[in-house]
Structure formats: C-alpha cells, structure tokens
Amino acid sequence: MKYWIQIGFVLVLTGTVSAAHAAGALPRSTPEAQGVSSAALREFVNALDRQIDGMHSVMVVRHGQVIAAGWWAPYDAERNQVLYSLSKSFTSTAVGFAVAEGKLSIDDEVLKFFPEDAPANPSSNLKAMRVRDLLTMSTGHQDEPPTAPDAISPKSFLAQPVPHLPGTHFKYNTAATFMLSAIVQKVTGQTVLDFLRPRLFAPLGIEHPVWDTNFQGISLGGYGLRVRTEDIAKLGQLYLQKGKWNGQQLLPAEWVAMATAKQTSNGSNPQSDWNQGYGFQFWRCRHNAFRGDGAFGQYCLVMPDQDAVVAITSGVKDMQAVLNVIWDKLLPAFQPQALPLDAAASAQLTDTLARLEVRPAQGAATSPLAGEVLNRKFVFPANDQKIEGLALSSSDSGKNLTLTARMDGKDMTVPCGYHEWKKGRAPLLGGPLAQFPAEPTAGTFAWPADDTCLIKLCAYETPYQTTLTLKLNGDQVTLDSETNVAFGPTKRPQLIGRAE
Questions:
Q1: pTM for the whole thing?
Q2: pLDDT means per 10 residues in the chain (500 residues)?
Q3: May I ask the CATH class of domain 370-499?
Q4: What are the strands of the beta sheet with 225-227, ordered from one edge?
Q5: CATH number of the domain at 4-79+228-354, please?
C-alpha cells in the first residue's frame, strides 16, 4: 500500500514525492501551532471515514499552513483528480485575469464575441446577455444547453432559447461556463489551460494540470480539469489571501471580492449550502464561507472567519453530508490562539491518516469453487455494456487474481489483491472520460460466498469505483455490475455468460 501523509514537521512517506512538488508545496505545521487540536482533527477525519462512504482525500490548511492531509488508498498525493464542476472556479479565475489585463469587461454582451455563431434573428434576451450573466449562472435559460464535449460549442449555446431576462433567473448552467472559456480563448488566442499556466498554475506550483476540450479545441471550462488535492487547496488559499501569493498580487483583490460575494440569490433554505447565494462560479456557504465544488464531492472550501481552507475529493451521492461533517466536527475546532503541543494526540492523528483506505472487497480469501473459475474464460452474448468476455487468472494459487475482460474488441487487464489494492490501468466500465481511454485503476477481490467472487475496481484519478459480482453455476456465470456514483443509474443490467 502506498500512502502519503504530512502532519506537523514530520513527513511520513512511502513511495516518492518529486523534488519539484516538495519545493512548490504549501508550508506545513503542527495543528496545535495553528490553534487546532490534533485530537479534534482526528475526530474530524474519523467522522469523514465513518459517516461518508466514498472519501478519497482531505487537506486542512490553517493560517496558510497544512495541518493535516491524508489520502484513502489507492488514492495518493501525486495523482491528479477529476474535478468536474470545481473546474468552474478555475475558469472564473481566468476571466478575472483577462478582465485585469483589459481583454474584456464583465459588462460586455456575449454576442459581441461570436457574431459568426449567432442565430439569424437573436432574441432581445439573447442580445441582453452579458459576461456577468455567464459568471452568475443567470443567463436567462430555462433549459441548459448541450454540455457533452462533442456537442457543446458557442453556436449550440447561442441557439438555445432564452425565455428569461438575463440577470433575473438563476439556473445552474455548465454551458455558460464553457462560454466563459470560449470568450477567454477568443480574446487571448489561448485555451484557458494555457492562459492560466503563467498566471496561476506556475506561480502556485500546480505542475501537471490537464483540461479536456470540446471538438473545436476549446477547454470545456465547466468541467474537464484535473489537478491534485494540494492544488485545490492552493486555489482556496489564493482566494483566502485576496489574490496574493508569496507577497505578489496575482489576481486583483477587487475581483476576488466580487467573485466570492453573493451576486445572485439561489434559494432560501437556511440549512442548505446550495441556497446561500452564488458569486462568479463560487457558491456561498453557511458560516460566511464560500466554495467551489464538483459532482460527487470535489470541494475547495474557504473559511475566511477561521483563516482556513479545506480541500476534499470523494465519490459521494450526498454532497451536503460532507459539508455537514465539516461544520459539525472541524469548524468548532478552530481556536484563536496556538495550543500546547500534544505529542500523543499528534501521533494518533498521524497513524489515523496513514491507515486511510477505500474499503476493499469483503469476504473470504478463497473458495472451494475457485479452481472452477480460475484460468477459464467466460463469454457473453452481445450487450449494451459491450462486455464480450472475462476471465480470472492467478499465478500464485489464488492469493492474487488478474481480471481480464474483453470490452468492445479490446482486452483490459487489472491485477486484484485480497484486502490490498493492486494497481494497473483500465477503461472505465461506464465509458471513457473524454481524452482518457484508460484510467489508473486498482483492484481487490474476495469471496463473500463459495459460489460468488467479488471484484472491486477503483479508478483512482476519478470518483468512480465499480463492483463486479460473479456468481458461478457450473459452466454458467452471472455478472452484476454497480458503480458507487453515476450521472444515471448506478446498477447495470445483469449479464449471463458461459465458459468457453
């Protein structure tokens, strides 16, 4: 198992951390030196681990110092993570830079930038739509324009009916963020990814950002960005510091103030962190906090009153539940002054962080029927999942297994350990994420019953885990497949295969 933990002034490391990353890392401190008890932090992490099924990483920063960081194996510090809509806050930042450099104004009309893509007779509402309305998700749309990479474009966005006066109707709108990306590219000649490299990514030490594009080569803006957990924390820290980094004003403080203020109302439920108002691609939160977030639990939470930042990646169905744990367990732990060092509690926290792990497949290490399935190939009739065949093999009498599946004419192979994540690469069973035909994937296996083998796969740059349940009956096998989270159904239709 590889994990990376840093807490206090001690670095506990298995595996390697690049010198470049170490040089560009946020400074580290003991929790007590920054006014937080190690015991309270440990209780916070334990609460996340117990209450939230699908945690992948957490980093807590206080007074600019990392006081705790942990990754649930097989996730680790050096891997980028799919951000989904947390990408929007980075796109907003790019707009802030472009505005500061005089490339555009937030009061510019959207049609100004794409006259060649405008409908023949644009409506008065479309004519009235401004960059500001894109930033605040108040474009006037009733229905969101297409957002898939092969469909989203300025032309498809501008073709969407605009029944509401822009600026008067909040509607979460990923295509609006794409238009911000397209506008930045139009006025700078660079994708948002390339535009941000010297202005944001390089100064903050964000080393290997990856951003998917649409079919025209425009960064998707509203999603598609991958960076590391610490990079998420760095963005939060930049905003907490009102745009300053290492004494230099990178982003104007005025922009930070506007971007993180309540620019539009989006509900009235005082218990919901999705009803506290919306800024420029940032959500307002309870407790005077603000955040960027992405599907299935990717968070950059900034708490100005506590001078703190929390970065989290996860694969969860209930995103409010994660924030509730922060408010219940972490928020009360922030104290105004430094606390006495607690060596015993610090050691316990370090140990807790080091043991974090995505729950592997549960069951026995082997089965009396293992010999009937190992090193045999099962084939399936044509199906929508495009699974043609699969086999389980072992070279060490079943102590470790290798899953080989033929999907859509191609073979994928993933090693699987018993109560230990084994790393390989494989395509996501639910379909690829844009330009990535295969993802870093780890596997575990177990036998919950004599006739049943459970395979759990974790694509550890993404929120996704897939559980395959193989039930044997002579030469027949039934395959049930389920993912932890999805934009549609998480369970797939059962398949029945036979030994070849």
A1: 0.94
A2: 35 34 83 98 98 97 98 98 98 98 98 97 98 98 96 98 97 98 98 98 98 98 98 98 98 98 97 98 98 98 99 98 98 98 97 98 96 92 95 92 93 95 90 81 98 97 97 95 96 96
A3: mainly beta
A4: 81-82, 225-227, 210-211
A5: 3.40.710.10
